[in-house]
Amino acid sequence: MGNWRPSREAPLVSKIRALIFDMDGVIVDSNPLHRESWAEYNRRQGIETTEEMHQRMYGKRNDMIIRDFLGAGLTDEEVFAHGAAKEALYREMLAPRLLKTLVPGLQAFLERHADLPKAIATNAEPPNVKFVLREAGLARFFQVIVDGHQVANPKPHPDVYLRAADLLGIPTQQCVVFEDSHGGVAAAIAAGMRVIGITTTYSDLPGVSLLARDFNDPAIENWLKAGE
């Protein structure tokens, strides 16, 4: 069941007018597969991936992860090539299990709230975002997609969330964000938004207004109704 956490930083004082979603860990429970594909890709580069390395990747943009894992001295061209190859491997591994990897209850939740404008704001690579939305039939639900390459600073900076709200035309205090990482929660809060934490990656996300296991958790609907 969800864990209700009234937030003094973001009280339920404004009508909810938009929903904004992270991708990895919120739309698709992909972090286990990212771990698997990073381990395999690093192995091909002669690097064994530690648990500490896995923990450092969550919520970060790919170029940051590549320079962390493979070397800070890589050129931009080398970073791009490594990133494209690793994400192609990830999509190859994801394809046969995509529908089973969607966070439970997601599609029904999106359909129940079809009247609310929606955006995706993510540090995930654009080809991965397009692949998931197209292959899972979810693209129709989202009016706006913002990734970390479209802004000056990726999460944990608030830029992707501020841009998503601007493109939706909704004040930040009337947007609710769904996040699974500490950096993502920090970005959304810094943007002045309320946050529902999805516990696919972490069991605790300090600063969120509500923790929920997935979109089947009835606490989400109760919380949203309280903010109408």
Description:
The protein folds into 2 domains: 3-30 and 99-226, HAD superfamily/HAD-like (Rossmann fold), CATH 3.40.50.1000; 31-97, DNA polymerase, domain 1. The longest helix has 19 residues, at 76-94. It contains 10 helices and 7 strands. By secondary structure, it is an alpha/beta fold. Helix 1 crosses helix 4 and helix 3 (62-70) crosses helix 4 (76-94). 43% of the residues lie in helices and 12% in strands. The chain has a 7-stranded mixed beta sheet with strand order 1-7-6-5-2-3-4, sandwiched between helices.
The CATH class of the largest domain turns out to be Alpha Beta
Mean of pLDDT? 92
Q: What spatial order of strands do you see in the largest sheet? A: 1-7-6-5-2-3-4
Number of helices: 10
Give short descriptive properties of this protein:
single chain; 228 residues; Rossmann fold; DNA polymerase, domain 1
Task: List strands and helices in order, with pairings.
Elements: E1 3-4, E2 18-21, H1 31-44, H2 51-57, H3 62-70, H4 76-94, H5 98-101, H6 106-112, E3 118-122, H7 126-135, E4 144-147, H8 159-168, E5 175-179, H9 182-190, E6 194-198, E7 210-212, H10 218-226
Summarize the structure.
The chain is α/β, with parallel strands linked by helices. Helices cover 43% and strands 12% of the residues.
